[in-house]
Amino acid sequence: MTFQRIVQALSLGLFILLPGWVAFPLVSPLPATDIFLRTDPLVLIGTMLSSRTFIMALWPAGVILLLTAVLGRFFCGCLCPMGTTVDLADRLIPARSDRPAPTLRRIRYRLLFFILGAGMMGISFVFLAAPLSLITRLYSLILYPALCFLADSGLTALTPVADRLGIPSVTYLQIGIPRFAHPWITLILFGGIFGCAKKSRRFWCRYLCPAGAIFALFSTKPMIRRQVSDACVECGQCRKACPMNAIGDNPRLTDHRECIACETCVRVCPTDAVTFSTGPARGASSFSGERRQLIRAGLSGAGAAIITATGLPFRRSDNAPGQIHPPELIRPPGALPERDFLSRCIRCGLCMRVCPTNTLQPIALASGVSAFLSPVITPRRGPCEPRCNACGQVCPTAAITPLTPAEKIWAKVGTAHVLRDKCLAWAFGRKCLVCDEVCPYNAIDLKTVPGISGAVPFVDAARCAGCGFCEHFCPVQAGAAIVVEPMEALRLAGGSYAEKGREIGLNLSITKKGKDDAQSYGGPESGTGESYGEGSGLPPGFTE
Predict the structure, then answer these.
(1) Rounded-to-integer distance, Cα 485 and Cα 413, Å
(2) Cα–Cα distance between 323 and 311 in angstroms, integer?
(3) For 37, phi and psi rounded to 5 degrees?
(4) CA neighbours within 13 Å on the CB side: how many for 445?
(5) Residue 332 burial class via C-beta count within 10 angstroms: exposed 0-12, middle 13-18, buried 19 and up
(6) Angle in degrees, CA 282, 287, 245, rounded to 5
(7) Which contacts (CB < 8 Å, 24+ apart) does range 272-277 have?
(8) Considering only CA atoms, which of 278, 287, 275 is closest in space to residue 219?
(9) Of 83, 364, 382, 442, which is the most exposed, with the fewest CB atoms less than 10 Å away?
(10) How much is the pLDDT for 283?
(11) Backbone phi, psi, residue 335, to 5°
């Protein structure tokens, strides 16, 4: 295995494993869990342009761009998880031909200017093509759940064997299987990207990647570049082996905008004529981006942004009258005000990946194109832990503010309300106490009303944080009888949630015994969540 392949393997391994340090509740989060996402230059430029904000957390992308001017596109060849994954796909799907298609290279520049044009109008389309966002979505929302499913199935298959071998502990092992909405959108997208391997190697990197277009602009004349000595016999082996088709008919000339510094040409050269070092550039590397076409692409992006911003679902502010606010649009705790949130969120799916209860899910078009695949809380799937702050810790663009556990308690995401026509206590007079028993904020008051024999639940909005425990554990099927909606959600662009919450009259605190441990919830497949009971061993809401 070559040095480049070793670096690629290590980089991909870190990319896959780092989010687990946040998702696993017994390990303290590392400060660089989202480091790969913060190295994407399209995320850097596109997000700061659409949000009109300098995002200090994205400084690694700036460092990578500066190094690119010195070393060339080394990130694409050695560190990029998307490039490594595409290389693996290329091995599985060999190209029928690898003829150069210079006109296709224009696509990535046009896509880049389309995204930048939309960003100038305040709309972020970065999530459509940022390579680090796309590949994170693939591994987090598709491959990770599939791996958990296979591991759990393996444990189930091993159970009879373990029993015969006298290892009963295997029977009690269980691996939670996260599930996410709309997986086919990501699968179809990557099916197309990987399928392009039939056309040529690294098709995505050569012709489609807008981040690659930015790297190409910065690597026109790198200080360390491909050099060919007089020992070259023009055998053409380097040209055939180059995965980016950066070597033309004359093997002594190199298009440095396309060279990803993988050094494949060095390894295949029979006369050791190729090196990577400083020296004079040999080969044209001037940028010819078809100015008119790029202007048209930028204007198209601006036009698409204007249409998006004038669509009915688009929200210009959180409190202005006439805004369409779908009831399922419950944002993660600490999410910025909606417009700021959407201008920063790159839909990478990392917040959903690390959520221990699997409540964060991608939304489709319920809130328009601008909110496509952005995260929402889905209480029926799982509650939001009062002391869990994992989603904010891994957000690379600070679309979700990283909160301390103490501040997180005050980050109200919505308010629960009882559907009296479905509630077992209200509609049928049954003694059901589930919502009261599981509420970690003690926001449910049981009162007697005329005409109903037992006590019925009322929600105290000042004590409700919208965590969704009540909706998640409600025993009523085909839709809970108590639901959380984003009413009175507290979303700040800055400042303290605790101070603002007290100022507006909230009274949020975890008061019930046994409900102050954010790690006690058993995860997305834990069933009834008995850990939040009072120690009797009975399901929530039942007494002896």
Answers:
(1) 8
(2) 11
(3) -65, -30
(4) 10
(5) buried
(6) 60
(7) 272/231, 273/228, 273/229, 273/230, 273/231, 273/232, 273/233, 274/226, 274/227, 274/228, 274/229, 274/232, 274/238, 275/226, 275/227, 275/229, 276/224, 276/225, 276/226, 276/227, 277/224, 277/225, 277/227
(8) 287
(9) 364
(10) 58
(11) -65, 140
**Tokens found for residue 202:** 């690294």
- Span 374-398, average pLDDT: 94
For residue 228, give both structure tokens. Answer: 């060919």
| Structure-block tokens of residue 221 | 């004349």
Q: pLDDT tens, 417-428?
A: 999 999 999 999
Distance separating alpha carbons of residues 83 and 36, to the nearest angstrom: 13
CA–CA separation, 371 and 314 (whole Å): 8
What CA–CA distances, in Å, run from 465 to 405, 417, 470?
Answer: 14, 12, 11
- HSE, CB side, 13 Å, CA atoms: give it for residue 408: 21
Q: What are the C-alpha distances in Å from 268 to residues 202, 262, 309, 378?
A: 19, 12, 52, 53
Helical packing angle, 106-120 and 291-309, nearest 10°: 40
Distance between CA atoms of 211 and 208, rounded to whole angstroms? 9
Which residue has 């088709």 as its token pair?
A: 245
**DSSP per residue, 150-170:** HHHHHHHHHHHHHHHTT-GGG
Contact status, residue 139 vs residue 186, Cβ threshold 8 Å? no
The pTM of this model reads 0.88
Is 369 buried (19+), middle (13-18) or exposed (0-12) by CB count in 10 A? middle
